[in-house]
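User: Round two. Same drill as before: sequence, then structure, for each protein.

Assistant: Same drill it is. First protein:
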Amino acid sequence: MLFHPDAHERLTERAWDAAAVRDAVAALAADAGRAFDRDTLWMPHPLDDLEDWDRLTGLYMGAAGAVWALDRLAQLGAAEAPRDWARVAAKLPERYAAMPDLEVETSGAVPSLMVGEAGVLVVALVLRPTAEVAQRLLDLVRGNA
């Protein structure tokens, strides 16, 4: 079964309340900020059943996506930034290079945008641009063509 009713909130007749939504987004972002650890990043949800949770740096399921989202919410004024997310993003490419989220037996780290090195580099480049990161991303894109 794809949908488990007990895992979701029931629909209500309550009218849309933009202020309540803003408060909920801010609370979720604050919780994510508090849960961050510079050594282990974030713990996964228990139902994700991940063995190597402490190495997920990618865009789709890892720290890069969380950092990008939290930084964007702060930029929009929708959440407080408890730390410099750009600084965190700048360290993720090195972390990914040392411990890739996924590896292909024959060629090592995956260059993919969503689950590989390219996504980590895009976030680092957007939040704290450097020529080195830009060149590495260009090399990955060209190598993937």
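Second protein:
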Amino acid sequence: MSEGTLNLHGGCVLLGEAGLLILGPSGIGKSALARRLVAERRAAGGFAALVADDRVLVSRHGGRIVARPHPALAGFAEHRGLGIRPVSHEGAAVLRLVVELTREPAPRMPEEADLAATLLGIRIPRVAGMAAEAGALIEAAISWPG
């Protein structure tokens, strides 16, 4: 049973069983990063899928945060220079990581408070940095033990 819902400007992908919520200012490359992550994971033989582009509905279900596409945008994604295109997608993902795209490089040693985001009262690991460095940060974060 849902315990509240947020409508966020961002994207979400599923890498294996890990849902990644991608946030950041408009035009920073959220959609491009989502496409790149899916393509790289698939090229490596793993499972990856888009969940949502542009608008993500996140809901608390017990102790987990579940992301879903906004119904009006489900199955569509923006491709800069080509417009909005239909794409295959998954209907939901349990979030395991929040990725915040920034215009500045990631700090070498982030503060402990910056390593998590709180959504609907639940803390989720968080990484922040420019789109160019996000892939390495994400891989490290979802494979880190503990």
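The chain has a mean pLDDT of 88.

User: Perfect.
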